[in-house]
Structures are given as structure tokens and as C-alpha cells.
């Protein structure tokens, strides 16, 4: 089932972060998500967060991915994450180890 990317970043993720605020801060990073064809979002899950908002800000880890590839990533993060990364479809700038923590971020409900 396809994910509504704008709804995910504008409504669902911010609400989930508020519900899991203390645990989210343990991720300890700032992310910039650039999803081609959908938009850009800044996610702060450091001690100053948690925040998820539209726009672009300086981040520890920047993820750039096409919307259709992001759908694959959401469906199966473990299998598709590495596959997309090595195929050059999931670009990570900054601290690449932080990209591994994104799965925790998206596991909040």
C-alpha cells in the first residue's frame, strides 16, 4: 500500500514524535529528508527536539531519495534500504551511521 509522503511528514511523524518525545531524543541527530517530487523536511530528534517540519535546515545526516524509491524503503526498510543505497538511489550525505537509525524513527506510531 502506497504511503502518502506529505501526510507522513506533515501529520503522522510529528504526532508520533510528540507521543514518543523522550525516546525520540535518544536518536540524537538532525536529519534532512529530500524526497524528489514530494518535498523537503527537517527532522530534529536531538536534545533540542523532537521536531518534524517542512523545509531545509543544516543537519547531521541528509537523505535524498526519489518518491517511488521512498515507497519501497517504507515497505521493507531492511531489505530495500541497502539495495537502494548500493544502487545509488538512496543518497546519504553527512554522518552515514545516522542513516541506520532512521528505522527507529519511522517505527513510532
UniProtKB/TrEMBL annotation:
Gene3D superfamilies, alphabetized: SCP2 sterol-binding domain
Matches recorded under InterPro entries: SCP2_sterol-bd_dom, SCP2_sterol-bd_dom_sf
Domain SCP2, chain residue ranges per copy: 18-106
Domain of life: Bacteria
Pfam families on file: SCP2
GO cellular component: cytosol
Matching PANTHER family: SCP2 STEROL-BINDING DOMAIN-CONTAINING PROTEIN 1 (PTHR10094:SF25), STEROL CARRIER PROTEIN 2 SCP-2 FAMILY PROTEIN (PTHR10094)
Protein name in the entry: Sterol-binding domain protein
Organism: Labilithrix luteola
Amino acid at each position: 500500500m502506497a504511503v502518502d509522503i506529505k501526510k507522513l511528514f506533515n501529520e503522522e511523524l510529528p504526532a508520533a514524535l510528540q507521543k514518543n518525545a523522550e525516546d525520540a531524543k535518544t536518536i540524537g541527530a538532525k536529519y534532512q529528508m529530500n524526497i524528489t517530487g514530494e518535498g523537503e523536511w527537517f527532522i530534529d530528534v536531538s536534545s533540542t527536539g523532537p521536531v518534524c517540519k517542512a523545509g531545509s535546515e543544516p543537519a547531521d545526516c541528509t537523505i535524498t531519495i526519489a518518491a517511488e524509491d521512498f515507497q519501497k524503503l517504507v515497505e521493507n526498510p531492511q531489505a530495500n534500504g541497502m539495495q537502494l543505497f548500493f544502487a545509488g538511489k538512496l543518497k546519504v550525505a553527512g554522518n552515514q551511521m545516522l542513516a541506520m537509525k532512521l528505522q527507529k524513527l519511522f517505527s513510532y506510531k
